[in-house]
Amino acid sequence: MRTPRPYQTAAVDKIKQLWSSGKRRVVVVAPVGAGKTYIAELLIVPTLKHKWAQVFFCAHTESLLDQPAQRFTSTEMQAAYIKAGRATDPTAMLQFCSAQTLARRDIVPQHERAVVFVDEAHRVKSATYIEILNKFKSLFKFVYIVYLTATPYRLDGRGLADIADAQIEVATPKQLMGKIPFPDGSIISRPVILPPLYWTEPPPEGDDTEAALSPGIVGDVVRIWQKRGQGLATICRAYSIDHSKLLVERFRSVGISASHIDGTMTTAQRRRLLVGLSVVGHPLAIDILCAGSNIFDEGFDSRASYEMLLPRTEDALEAWRILRDPVTQLGPSEALLLRRRVLDGVLPELRDFWPPVESGRPLEPPPYRPLCCLIDAAPTASKGAWMQRQGRVVRVWYGDDEETVLARSWQGLTVSGPRPSPVVLCHSGSLDRHGALIHHENFPFTTDAIWSPKLRLGNGVAKLHVPLPRICPGCLSIDVERTGTCAYCGAATAEPNLPDETKKEVDFVAREAAPATSTPGTREAFLKSQYVRWLSINRDQAAQGKPAYKPGWPLVRFKARFGFWPDMALQKQVKAQLGIQ
Q1: Of 27, 163, 329, 581, which has the highest C-beta tally within 10 A?
Q2: Measured CA distances, 46 to 52, 53, 118 (Å)
Q3: Radius of gyration (Cα) for the chain, nearest Å?
């Protein structure tokens, strides 16, 4: 087990102290990349070693389970899954549990105590988790719960005090970036996360049809990535699956290696794509991976994806250590046998990332390529989702460890070096609305949250106040710390336009020259005008032999103007007036 950082040790000590005082339900808050899963591991190992309790690690996605489970594959601790399609063992003292499966299956207690970890705990008020927690309470005499999250608030703007007894804020982004000290006065000398470089673009000029077909998206996603993110491993969050597939086509049309990923794919297919994004110098490597769902919003870790590529069994790891030893002398048949043992320990769907057994090439995977760029093209009213997305690209990477450098160097292979600064290309308006990751701290527990992602008048929650970034008028870089000077080109940065916080809905992009007046009459007139225009455009398209605009085009125009979709009654009324079937 690696050496814990001081703030992780302090978190474990604080959790134990709270448990001893009778506060058995603890929320552990830390930024993405702070090592919340490792904090859980620091509690799990002694709990199992001393047979103090049965342990359950719960999450709602496969990746959130696989990442911590990987850490126990080579240990003597008995672990199993409570998940559809995975090998089960009800007697195992460590269970990795899919929330959806756990709610349906019976639990067979192996101890009077249960220690339950809930990852991405801001989801814990769902009906599924309420059922799970009630199940634990009814089956075990003592239940200790650790809620892990980077965003400890819910969509109603409130904290988590009704489902927990205490909250620990382990570290803030500024502390993990080494910008301010911890309460004990210490400062991190090697940052754990890095502050991103943010870029934005002005809205398109004129009445651009392509922009209208991408609600709330500002700027040319492909062109701006070529200018700001070229060469960086990138995730792209699109606003829908169709939008994601369209962006992949656009990137490929200009020679960029891009792929789409979504939840309908098999586990093996998703693993291949995630590993492809995490490697460089291989035919299966990917520059940009696009998703139109929340695959990247929670739990995604680029390094953990790469580690799925490595041998998983003790026999394979031992064979790999022998092959990597520069002083070991092996005959051809012996070396071939060892190579087969190594690849037998690699997941079958990932073996073609390695050299073939009989190729004679050094048996090493492609070097790791850290994730460095986020393209955010999915407007969201959720502050938590926006913060989670930024967190995907800020994890620090100082390069391969000494053992890996030695093993690859003597075989004449390249190694993974330190990562460049992370880049966030914001096309969604979320930076202006929700703020930068560096300011995401100081969360209330027993009072209403000011970090509410969805604010409504009269819900008893204070208005959202986030430090708005300054924009460089020259290079359009973002000065999130409001220093007044662009860190990229040195120009003076400009004050942003403050958003209108009295509105009930968030307008991510104002596409009209003047604010739209929303009355039943204006909405009907505008939608009718857009349907008339749609009919006219499609007549011209047909005359030129071009494909027609989609039937949703007038609806997108309506939403761009008023900030919400037209209801079905209005759509039917306008279509009937124009004779549209």
Answers
A1: 27
A2: 8, 10, 18
A3: 26
Using alpha carbons, select from 28, 26, 15, 102 the residue that is nearest to residue 58: 102
- Which residues, at least 6 apart from 296, have a Cβ–Cβ distance to it below 8 Å? 235, 237, 389, 392
Q: What are phi and psi of 26, to 5 degrees?
A: -125, 130
Residues with Cβ within 8 Å of 346's Cβ and at least 6 positions away in sequence, in order, are 309, 310, 311, 312, 316, 354
Please give the Cα distance from 493 to 472 (Å, whole number): 4
Nearest to 310 by CA among 73, 61, 36: 73
Structure-block tokens of residue 202: 């002005």
pLDDT digits (tens, 9 = 90+) for 289-312: 999 988 887 778 899 899 999 998
The answer to whether 64 touches 119, Cβ cutoff 8 Å, is: yes
**Helix, strand or coil, per DSSP, at residue 56:** strand
Helix, strand counts (H, E) of the chain: 19, 15
How would you label 87-104 residue by residue, b for 16+ Cβ within 10 Å and e otherwise?
eeeeebbbbbbbbeebbe
List pLDDT tens digits, range 322-362: 999 999 899 999 999 999 999 999 999 999 999 999 998 99
- Alpha-carbon separation of residue 61 from 66, 238, 297 (angstroms): 9, 20, 11
Residue length, the chain?
A: 581
Q: Residue 97: helix, strand or coil by DSSP?
A: strand
Two structure tokens written together for 164: 């927990």
SS3 29: strand
Q: Which residues of the chain have pLDDT under 50?
A: 203-215, 448-465, 497-516
Is residue 121 within 8 A of residue 127, CB to CB? The reply is no
Q: pTM (2 decimals)? A: 0.74
DSSP 294-354: GGGTSS--HHHHHHTTS--SHHHHHHHHHHH-TT----HHHHHHHHHHHHHTS-GGGGGGS
Q: Looking up tokens 């990247």, which residue turns up? A: 296
> Phi first, then psi: what are they for 328, rounded to 5°?
-75, 130
